[in-house]
């Protein structure tokens, strides 16, 4: 577990480094940029396998993960969040200290919700949906559609004894 | 924008705001779906439904005994769609002799005309006088739930507003989601008319379950109001429970998850890629796909079967409770016939009052258990126990006195 | 990198397969979590729990009356972790005089040694003889659920296999998901010992609820078995219900959705990124994050509060039912003391038998209603009604004969 020790000793430095590398890698080219938001890339982590698998069976499977999980209000915000969340994900993946059950955070939920509305504004045009003002309206998409991307059956299949 | 097809707020002429007709052109999807409330198809579970003359009294004959001496023994039907609210009201055999307070939950006329003029005054005037000016189209129109100027939801039934305020809740500053429950809750709840000025009030102060509401009536919190009637057989002072749909839902799993009446009974529907709110407030199993399946992954069949099971379990106990209560009234009557005194029968009469309250709380509720299974079943268990206690107590008295 | 969703199969020496020790090194995550079954912390809801001497008889004294004349009045504790199965069994005051069939659900010794040798023969031998050779580590080891050669789940309790076969279900050809319930269900169910050869059998033929199982015993489907004991006070022929956890779960919302015992009681955990199945089969509210939140969006607090509410509602009716049953036994006894004949008391005794069966079905079940709220509450409602009917019938007889 040298990685773990390294991380624990130099957490800050590693994070800053990770951030820079993240942004740099992402900046290398639009191909890399696109790949690093794709189901194939995100799903390459153990922690993401379940979500990638369920997503692949959803009505939205043609989308990129980042279409929902990163803010799309402007490019700077997008890049910043991409670096920031990518850093956190990498940190926990390396430490392997993430919980058995990863649950989306309330900020994460808000981001996703904004993205629903980004694509489906027209659909919601005639009903009460003050998104952005508060999630406490018809605009709380996840109240009714939380299983749209990853199903709601989280049964994961067994652990194999080989 | 040219492609913007979103609904535009329409100006409804003031003199037409209480009706429905004037909204037809501006809001066709909502209007047309509201008119589906005229549908009278049976309930998918067999509980509830919307047929005329769907009589509780025929379905559960024990009710005739339990309401003996009260108007509910004359006619007591299952509720129908909102478009029938005026018609069914005017035709019910329970109407003669009632006061104006009865129209409180049948249209917004009481508010936009009477209440705005002179508060609760209408409440204690004779019903004939109060309902005379209301035109057919003015019973249960769009203004019943919407502010006609803004089309925002509105909660204006002052009895409900006051009763919620006593619980520390300002319904008009509630979240939008909560309003999607309160707009229904202002009518779909247990109420009584105060003896003092006939206004509508709700026994919510101690909590939203049958026991807390019973305590409200027992403790004098209802002021001079003590009973709805004296039972013809047992001479017990009885309470009538009315549709505690709000109270039942309020502590349910669905309420916990922020799921309101509107989410199930008025699901979003689609037309031309746009959503609108269905205004056919009916049994949601008639629209399972839209009402349930967005949140639930189970199949429509599985969900329906579950609602049916809960309903069957509830109805099984409801019948046992209702029949035992009926027997309790008859047992007290037999004791009276055999010479038991009012003093001796004091406790049995309290017991049958309480037992019937619990039974009626469920029988009058409209979800047949589904809105909150374990709460409803607990209430029925208490009813069965109290009704039998009444019978045993009465028999013990008789044994002594024979 | 280690594959975080697989484990390497280890060869366990044949003579060590029944114990746990030999598995320790090969499967440390599973072994260590299994050892957490030694934990004795209290239940988050106050129902259940795992403390030694957590006596049902002290918590609900009406049980002493209801089990009068039977071993359950001597000692009847709440269940503890699987690691205590041998110890608690050997120490229970209910043990003296029992037969070998008792060990059927306490380890796989009965199967791997006795059953493989000579079928159900062990069932009717004296318990002391049958349990003598079982070493401490051999009570409830890994082989209780796993085939030690392959570590696959196994269902081998022949009584359960046969009883399910009569329902048309071949448990060993079931889906993997179903096996995740059957592996528990083979023990956590209602059973009786046949009079014919003492084997374990289950009253599942007519259905998986209390009424159907009662009908099984009433109709002669249990062969020569008619009762577990004669009640000391009422002299009624009584049945003891045992932990119908499987039957309760089997028709629940969770079962409908394919959620098995294992999903809640043995959730997936992670250690250093390695995923494993928790082997601490305890109250899932001790692991709400992993047990519930993987499927539910509500907060842990909301979910716990809901389980608590269901438990409180259930316990309220369970106590009423239990106490009324106790009173029924005493009422019959009073009638006997006053000279009532066996013929007169035939019907009351049938009523108390049935009432107690319904009550016990719930009292012996381990989810305090949560596993299936409305089914459990219906059963309690029936119990309350039948127990009172018994009292009323008996009093009516006495009134006639006094
Ligand atoms: Ca109806
Ligand atoms: Ca326990």
Automatic annotation (TrEMBL), chain A:
Concerning InterPro entries, the annotation shows: Cytochrome_c-type_ET, Multihaem_cyt_sf, NapC/NirT_cyt_c_N, NapC/NirT_cytc_sf
A Gene Ontology biological process noted in the UniProt record is: anaerobic respiration
Subcellular location field: Cell membrane
Bilayer-spanning residue ranges: 12-35
Q: Which residues form the signal peptide?
A: none
The residue ranges of the NapC/NirT cytochrome c N-terminal domain are 9-151
Q: What is this protein called?
A: Cytochrome c-type protein NrfH
Q: What is its main location?
A: membrane
Q: Which family does it belong to?
A: Belongs to the NapC/NirT/NrfH family.
| Pfam families found in the cross-reference section | Cytochrom_NNT (PF03264)
Q: Which UniProt keywords are present, listed alphabetically?
A: Cell membrane, Electron transport, Heme, Iron, Membrane, Metal-binding, Transmembrane, Transmembrane helix, Transport
Keyword check for Transmembrane helix: yes
Any single Gene Ontology cellular-component annotation: plasma membrane
Q: Which GO terms describe its molecular function?
A: electron transfer activity; metal ion binding
Which gene is transcribed and translated to give this protein? nrfH
Origin: domain of life: Bacteria
């Amino acid at each position: 577990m040298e990685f773990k020790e390294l991380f624990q000793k130099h957490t800050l430095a590693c994070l800053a480094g990770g951030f820079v590398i993240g942004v740099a890698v992402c900046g290398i080219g639009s191909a890399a940029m696109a790949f690093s938001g794709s189901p194939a890339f995100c799903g390459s982590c153990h922690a993401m396998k379940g979500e990638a698998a369920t997503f692949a069976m959803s009505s939205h499977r043609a989308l990129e993960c980042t279409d929902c999980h990163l803010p799309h209000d402007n490019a700077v915000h997008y890049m910043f969040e991409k670096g920031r969340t990518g850093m956190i994900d990498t940190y926990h993946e390396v430490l392997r200290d993430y919980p058995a059950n990863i649950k989306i955070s309330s900020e994460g939920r808000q981001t996703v919700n904004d993205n629903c509305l980004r694509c489906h504004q027209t659909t919601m045009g005639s009903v009460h949906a003050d998104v952005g003002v508060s999630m406490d309206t018809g605009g709380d998409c996840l109240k009714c559609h939380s299983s749209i991307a990853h199903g709601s059956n989280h049964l994961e299949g067994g652990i194999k004894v080989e | 924008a040219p492609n913007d097809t979103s609904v535009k707020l329409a100006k409804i002429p003031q003199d037409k705001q209480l009706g429905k007709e004037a909204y037809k052109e501006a809001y066709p999807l909502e209007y047309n779906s509201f008119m589906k409330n005229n549908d009278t198809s049976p309930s998918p579970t067999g509980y509830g439904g919307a047929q005329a003359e769907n009589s509780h009294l025929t379905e559960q004959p024990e009710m005739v005994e339990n309401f003996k001496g009260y108007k509910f023994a004359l006619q007591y039907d299952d509720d129908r769609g909102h478009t029938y609210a005026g018609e069914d009201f005017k035709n019910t055999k329970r109407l003669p002799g009632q006061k104006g307070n009865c129209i409180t939950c049948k249209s917004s006329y009481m508010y936009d005309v009477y209440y705005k003029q002179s508060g609760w005054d209408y409440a204690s005037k004779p019903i004939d006088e109060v309902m005379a000016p209301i035109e057919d189209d003015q019973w249960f129109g769009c203004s019943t739930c919407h502010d006609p100027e803004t089309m925002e939801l509105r909660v204006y039934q002052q009895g409900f507003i006051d009763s919620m305020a006593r619980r520390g809740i300002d319904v008009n500053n509630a979240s939008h989601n909560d309003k999607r429950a309160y707009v229904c809750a202002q009518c779909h709840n247990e109420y009584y008319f105060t003896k003092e000025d006939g206004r509508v009030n709700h026994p919510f102060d101690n909590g939203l379950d049958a026991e807390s509401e019973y305590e409200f009536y027992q403790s004098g919190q209802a002021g001079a109001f003590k009973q709805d009637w004296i039972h013809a057989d047992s001479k017990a002072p009885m309470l009538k429970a009315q549709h505690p749909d709000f109270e039942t839902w309020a502590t349910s799993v669905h309420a916990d998850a922020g799921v309101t009446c509107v989410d199930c009974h008025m699901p979003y529907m689609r037309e031309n890629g746009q959503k609108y709110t269905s205004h056919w407030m009916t049994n949601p199993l008639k629209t399972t796909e839209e009402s349930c399946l967005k949140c639930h992954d189970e199949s429509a069949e599985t969900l329906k079967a579950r609602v049916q099971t809960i309903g069957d379990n509830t109805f099984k106990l409801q019948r046992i409770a209702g029949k035992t209560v009926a027997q309790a009234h008859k047992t007290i009557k037999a004791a009276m016939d055999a010479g038991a005194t009012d003093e001796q029968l004091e406790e049995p009469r309290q017991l049958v009052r309480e037992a019937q309250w619990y039974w009626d709380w469920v029988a009058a509720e409209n979800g047949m258990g589904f809105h909150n299974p374990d709460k409803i079943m607990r209430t029925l268990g208490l009813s069965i126990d109290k009704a039998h206690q009444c019978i045993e107590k009465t028999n013990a008295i008789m044994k002594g006195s024979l």
